[in-house]
Each structure stands twice: as C-alpha cells, then as structure tokens.
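To assess whether ligand presence alters the predicted conformation, the chain was also submitted together with LYAYVSCA. Input:
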Amino acid sequence: MIDHVHDLAAVREATDRLLSAIGDLDNAAVAEPSRLPGWTRGHVLAHLARNADALVNVLEGRPMYVSGEARDADIERDAPRPLEVQLADLRDSSARFLRTADVPADWSRTIEMRNGVTDSAARVPFRRLIEVELHHVDLGIGYELTDLPEEFTAREIDFLSERFTGNPGVPALRLKATGGNGGKQWSTGRLEGEPVSVSGPPAALMGWLAGRCDGSDLETGGAPLPALPPL
Ligand SMILES: O=C(O)/C=C/C(=O)CC(=O)C(=O)O
C-alpha cells in the first residue's frame, strides 16, 4: 500500500534541502559539469523543473511531454540560465507540483508516464522524490548517496528491483544489504537460473542499480558483477 501523503511530505523535505543547497551556489558553479555525462548543473536544474511540470501533466491526465525531442530541447534551452532564474523556476515548478498533488483525487487510478510506462497515481509522489533526491546527488555539491534517508534508499532498491524483474537484460540477482538496513534482501532480474548474490551497504547497492556507481564496493563472492542496462 503506497502512502502518497507520506511521500508528498518527503518530497517537500527533499525539495527544501535541494533549494537550500542550490542557494549556496553561484552562476559559475551552475555552468560547471554535473556528474551526469554531458550535462552541466544547469541541465540538471532545468530537468528537475521540467520534470515537476511533466508530473503535473501526468496527474492532470495529459501526456507527460509533448515528445522526447521537446523534452530534450526544453532542457537545453533552460540549462544556461543564471542561478537566480534556475532557483525561481525550480521553486515555482516544485510548488505547482505539490499544489496539484494536494487536490483530492482518485489515487488508485492508472497514470501513464513517458515511454508508455503505466503505474498507480499514488506512486507519482515517490517518482518525484526519486528525481529530487538522486539529481541532488548528481549535482556533485556535497550531498552523497550515503546522505540519502535510509527509508528512501531501501524503497528505491525495492522500486528498481521490481523494475528490473523480468527484464531480459538483467540476470537473476539476490541483493543483500549490509550495515544500515542490514540483512534486508531483494531479488530481481530473470526468474530462472541460479541468482548472482550481490551484497554491500544499501547506498552502494542502490547507487549501482541506479547507474550512479560502478559497484566496485560490492561483494559477489568472486563472481563477476553483472552489467545492468540503463534505466
Ligand atoms: O520513472 C519513469 O518511468 C520515468 C521517469 C522520467 O521520465 C523522468 C525523466 O527523465 C523526465 O521527467 O524527464
């Protein structure tokens, strides 16, 4: 059972944390590379603002983006803006998303994301949380995978395990958290065959599944760490 009210509170907290961290940057820092290949920090901030608008579209029953090309063009257009403009846009678009999500609605209805992915409306707040939290890390401004709230990390591993299950490009995996969330286990990938056991701290497991690190700090008992397809 997804608690969208709880998730919206987490989105508010994560957004405040992000806005406060961005407020400490300057125009030069916004123009510098982020940790995402080919994207400056300005691209990441523009993407976060446009994703908030896109999720308003989803909640209101419109297509998430007009097209993939329009999505990419909007990010390119907005990326070079100075800090003050980026900050105001992200603050306003995030507030629009939260206002839209506060309107009473049937949260069990099915919504459609881009690329035809369907889900329950109740999961939209968590999807926004993923964007805000992981892209905060991608900015490379001192907020790391290990700083993410423990509950978020465990739920993101749940979410990605579910997403990878049945994906023909993902071998059967048994994931085991050590340290925080210690002992918690997940399985994912193709259901047939002996699973590869991968263990490590939750932040490292999540970072590997989410394509944020190479998994070199994970244990596989000597087996090669499988390559994962992009998300
Ligand atoms: O979780 C999904 O299925 C889709 C997420 C996104 O499309 C997030 C973006 O990359 C975006 O809003 O541009």
